[in-house]
């Protein structure tokens, strides 16, 4: 059916219906040239400028990203170095604290030993003083009892203190000598 229409139109017109008229071609060419010149002179420079700006911005951002990457790597290295220093310092502090603890314990032991020796010496001195006091009191009492007993055996009072003291001392010395001989 389309073929029939084309042939019918060809018979009625003298020129080919598929080709436009010559004035249409000329005016279309003029319009195309005007649009081409406007695009070449106005749009193309604007597009080129915009692409240059975008290219510069991208290059600037890449440079900034590279710089930020370098700064981040430098900061990481610094952080790693500081962390290693902090760990080393912490180890030194721990060692110093251990040494101080050992010194404190040793000093406390020495102080406790010295205090124990002082307390022991004081206790021995006190015991010796009490022994001497007891010995003196015992001598006095034993002497009095011995004189009373001797006076009861002899039948007379021994009132001479110097003689009584001599007798008591001799008696106690004999008693101590027999005690030491028994040990």
TrEMBL record:
The keyword Coiled coil applies. It comes from the Bacteria. Keywords: ATP synthesis, Cell membrane, CF(0), Coiled coil, Hydrogen ion transport, Ion transport, Membrane, Transmembrane, Transmembrane helix, Transport. The chain crosses the membrane at residues 25-44. It is found in: Cell membrane. Residues 58-96 form a coiled coil. InterPro entries: ATP_synth_B-like_membr_sf, ATP_synth_b/b'su_bac/chlpt, ATP_synth_F0_bsu_bac, ATP_synthase_B_chain. The keyword Cell membrane applies. It is a single-pass membrane protein. Belongs to the ATPase B chain family. F-type ATPases have 2 components, F(1) - the catalytic core - and F(0) - the membrane proton channel. F(1) has five subunits: alpha(3), beta(3), gamma(1), delta(1), epsilon(1). F(0) has three main subunits: a(1), b(2) and c(10-14). The alpha and beta chains form an alternating ring which encloses part of the gamma chain. F(1) is attached to F(0) by a central stalk formed by the gamma and epsilon chains, while a peripheral stalk is formed by the delta and b chains. Component of the F(0) channel, it forms part of the peripheral stalk, linking F(1) to F(0). F(1)F(0) ATP synthase produces ATP from ADP in the presence of a proton or sodium gradient. F-type ATPases consist of two structural domains, F(1) containing the extramembraneous catalytic core and F(0) containing the membrane proton channel, linked together by a central stalk and a peripheral stalk. During catalysis, ATP synthesis in the catalytic domain of F(1) is coupled via a rotary mechanism of the central stalk subunits to proton translocation. HAMAP family: ATP_synth_b_bprime. This is ATP synthase subunit b. It comes from Microbacterium murale. The lineage of its organism: Bacteria, Bacillati, Actinomycetota, Actinomycetes, Micrococcales. The gene is atpF.
